[in-house]
What we know:
The protein has 404 residues and is of the alpha+beta class. It has helices spanning 4-14, 18-35, 40-43, 48-55, 78-96, 171-185, 188-198, 207-221, 228-232, 237-248, 258-272, 288-299, 322-330; strands at residues 44-47, 65-70, 106-109, 115-121, 131-138, 148-151, 165-168, 333-339, 342-353, 359-365, 371-375, 379-388. The strands form 3 sheets. It has a 5-stranded mixed sheet. The chain has a 5-stranded antiparallel sheet with strand order 11-10-9-8-12. The chain has a two-stranded antiparallel sheet with strand order 6-7.
Amino acid sequence: MITRLDLDERVREWRLRDDVVEKDYVLGWLLWGIGSDAVLGDAWVFKGGTCLKKCYIETYRFSEDLDFTVMPGGPSQPEAVLPILRGVLDRVAQESGLNFSGREPTMSVRPKGGIEGRVFYNGPRGAQGVASVKIDLSATEVVVRPTVLQRISHVYPDRLPEPATVRCYSFEELFAEKIRAMGERSRPRDLYDIVNLFRRDDLQAVPALIRDALQEKCRTKGVPVPTLASVMGSDFFSELKADWANMLAHQLPALPPFQDFIDELPNLFAWLEGTLVQEPLEAAPATAEEAEEEDVALAAGAPSQVWSPPPTAWVWGSGSALESIRFAAVNHLCVDLSYDNKRRVIEPYSLRRTKSGNLLLHAVKVDTREARTYRVDRIQGAQVLSQSFKPMYAIEFSSKGRIN
């Protein structure tokens, strides 16, 4: 098990509560236990927002529960699941040092269908009492795309034993399921996730892939395909704004304005329907040093160096503010930056590494609208603000790759 110092380092860099970071750590180990189990490994298929974050891409939203669809013939009733789950917890405890003995796991049938379980643990916080992870099981959900084995993201000093994989929904089915859920329930986490995914450049070219999966998901559930009008007119929509802070604030380093995400919905649905016309933004202008290096590289017939952020949250060390800045950029939030003993409010756009080894933050100063660069090693601090901005350059902080 990681130490309290390991936990605190991530709390500082990720700007989250210690119980949220601890739960993210525990989720990784539980996924390893389930994915490597002889029965559950093929019978339970991981899905939902936690699956997106832990097995596909960085969503910046730290989730709290584990959702699975049970494949036909797989264990889904409490009397069948609990003995297997206890065995999983025993293996995880032996490998990780986590303590699951404070309280027995529970599993019960919901009145409206589905199974809800709880796993209780003591982790590296050393807190009194036990914390818990909720496990949701659905045996009636129809999987419409082939499932895939995905690697489990675990950005902690202890490594998950190989093979550190779990069976998951395909990426297009996850995205489609999120849109379907937004149409039915209009929960803050669904709105945050679908807009976060829509803003990624690498997904802009595949609306038909997501649309086809969405239509099939809705057909198998017997519900209409969501539209902008149906989402905005939903009976649950009035609760969306009221619950925005209550349901999201503790899962994010800072809470983006609700209206910014609502304002993206017309573009999202136009994109999904194939009618969105949107000119791509240009990249932030290169510095003189970058331009010179680019010319030298091209003259030599070699590609210039390209720096891409890690596909998931990272620990940079020494209390680095980089993760806060990455979060702010992809959520279009301004940053109060401390640099050279001065503070300024900026719009962050990209990180680029020069061939001389310097990592540069490209940004725009809010007050003067000047494009500026800041050496990352000289940044003294960064605070994410609730003030949002409309990008004038391409946001290059979203990693292009996936966890695999």
